Amino acid sequence: MTARIIDGKAVAQKLRAEWKQRVDALRARGITPGLVVVLVGDNPASAVYVRNKAAACAEVGLSSSVRRLPADCSEASLFACLTELNRDPRIHGIIVQLPLPPHLDAARALQALAVEKDVDGFHWCNLGALVEDRPRFVPCTPLGVMHLLGHEGIAVEGRTAVVVGRSSIVGKPQALLLIARSATVTVCHSRTPDLGRFTRDADILVVAAGRPGLVTGEMIKAGAAVIDVGINRLPDGKLAGDVEFESARRRAGHITPVPGGVGPMTVAMLIANTVTAAERGAAG
Ligand code: GUN
């Protein structure tokens, strides 16, 4: 078997075209959805992500800007910046680009965001709403994965799903979204012994561990949908996922590449959440 390769870039492009109509409708009412990315310090990977986000916003007609703060900025000045953005009616979505420099507590910063502008869905109120099956803003990467599964016609209900990774921004919300769609979900992580014992059972395997090549072909059930969330920079400068692509594609039914799989969907979902925030704001 050779897997069908899921083209996340093309799916994201199609979704952006659809959402442009929602943006046009808002703009006709004098509302331009606005996103601000708060970028602290000069992490080179963050700079690339932020550029991608700005380009996608421009394509769809959103206004976006980057609020840069120095790497040694105090928590007080970060909070002052967030408070100012929370109060600005022209801004519908705010994200704090992660990681923050080590002297800043990311969880505390995220709780300082206005819940209705938290388009990353990382505020505890938004994560709690997801736990309660009443989602408001859902974290962009796991939401993008669900859209990819839907787009490919991959059934979720009643199937066995394994999520590798337990972060609050991908693994945990991913598991919740799959449970909400009636999959039977197992969450594995870096301390799971004999990972293959679990992954070989998965009809849907989502890998978000941040370890290049962690999952190999022989750890995959024949015909499974394999979604690779990992983006790892190798010593030779190339990007690689958490799944060993060549061996995995010979076992899987569907597989996402890196780059060009989940990454573009994360950006697309950020746009969707920002448009939704602006629509909710307009509805009063
Ligand atoms: N850093 C890596 N991915 C993300 C993301 O989805 N949102 C934010 N805010 N920071 C990130």
What's the short story on this structure?
The protein is an alpha/beta fold. Helix content is 42%, strand content 15%.
Give structural notes.
- The structure is a single chain.
- The protein starts with a strand and ends with a helix.
- The protein has helices at 8-28, 44-60, 75-87, 106-111, 124-131, 140-151, 171-180, 195-199, 245-249, 262-283; strands at 4-5, 34-40, 63-69, 93-96, 160-164, 184-188, 204-207, 225-228, 232-233, 239-240, 254-255.
- The strands form three sheets. A six-stranded parallel sheet has the order 1-11-8-7-5-6. A three-stranded parallel sheet has the order 3-2-4, sandwiched between helices.
- β5, α7 and β6 form a beta-alpha-beta unit.
- It is an alpha/beta fold and 284 residues long.
- The model has no long low-confidence stretch (mean pLDDT 97).
- The chain is built from ten helices and eleven strands.
- α6 crosses α10 (262-283).
- Guanine binds at residues 49, 95-98, 120, 140-141, 266.
